[in-house]
């Protein structure tokens, strides 16, 4: 199992934003809406995680939840890898 | 135990093109001097080489025996059994002659019948019935040409080139075997090829491998077909051959050749839709699908035929973007045409080829992703590089290609992951999986 750490996922998230000339704040409590991180960006990040680990994420497993902050995104993807 | 049917008496007059030149496997022949094998009737012939396939076609033209022609590699064990069940003697044709396997259920032959196996882009190949006459779509007198035939024997595109040469004097053929395909420009230049027909993938691959070698082929007619034709490939070919006639053809085993466009632009004029004329196909659009009513249809396919090809009207042109079942990508409820995205990517000066697909993703269901092959940087450094060779700038990275798309496409249609491949993948049908 080739799992990415929270910090590694954070780097990938920064890359997604950087490609759009946006910056990822250091604060995990930063609101996604304010930094302009949207559904398409979230999906891209998930694909990047898959490409890094070579494993498919099971998107159907976890229930719906509210993803509003940078921390929510990172927690969710860390958790998805463990499904 | 199999029965080798003796050669039946000549039933048809020699075709008008019988003295046209054929270059195959390096040997110069004519249709008349091509050795013709004795074939069972009905026969499913699996040709080992291009020469054997031409021989089977000539045999059919002269004797009218029922024939399904293909290459051994396109017919698997299950398909062989299916053909034997359908009454065909399956015959592998090689230098030693025919090697027949008897049909499971022998039946009487249907004189003059030709069968095509569709390319199988919709799943399993299926048989479509034609005759030499319904496969012959070029009937007006043509200027003398020496045609390159790069297609797999027995496909609709192969029969188009072959029937042209069989039925029209002055239409010569230079046939390349699959193992010669990468070096076809050298073969073509050596034999004076001035007309060539190929898929966009075939042309892209040729431009990518060696545009300078291509430029040495004295082409006066360039034809594209078999896959969606985008503006970028037409423009690149126009750059190399400014004086050639540049045509694209929409044709399929089911509806025959239905659209022929010579103006060097992708798509066809919107005012061709729903125009009825005797002896000509009628083109319509239903729910984004191209519908064709064609006089060149296969057996049992009279009337409007849903082609399974997706179309999109952009300004005054109707663009054929790809297969309906694979072209449409649903990104969070927004529909994206893979063909349109592919067109944007191949429009980038550094992109030689692109494949666009949907990939499973959270939240949105699917996301647009792509694979590309970058154009080779010009090797010449003397400032005399060929026009299609690219300037020796650093190649674009994923982010640069994503930005190129973001400037030209709605947000949900932008491929977010773009993988760079080192070689253009190509199937035996000369199509990519696009």
UniProtKB/TrEMBL annotation, chain A:
Residue stretches making up the Carrier domain: 3-81
Q: What is this protein called?
A: Acyl carrier protein
Automatic annotation (TrEMBL), chain B:
Annotated GO biological process: fatty acid metabolic process
Q: Which Pfam families match?
A: AMP-binding (PF00501), AMP-binding_C (PF13193)
- Ranges where the AMP-dependent synthetase/ligase domain occurs: 61-282
SUPFAM superfamilies for the chain: Acetyl-CoA synthetase-like (SSF56801)
Please give the Gene Ontology molecular function terms for this protein. medium-chain fatty acid-CoA ligase activity
AMP-binding enzyme C-terminal domain location is: 344-428
Q: Which domain of life is it from?
A: Bacteria
Q: Which family does it belong to?
A: Belongs to the ATP-dependent AMP-binding enzyme family.
Q: List, alphabetically, the PANTHER family matched.
A: ACYL-COA SYNTHETASE, ACYL-COA SYNTHETASE FAMILY MEMBER 3
- Protein name, entry field: Acyl-CoA synthetase
- Lineage per the UniProt record: Bacteria, Bacillati, Actinomycetota, Actinomycetes, Micromonosporales
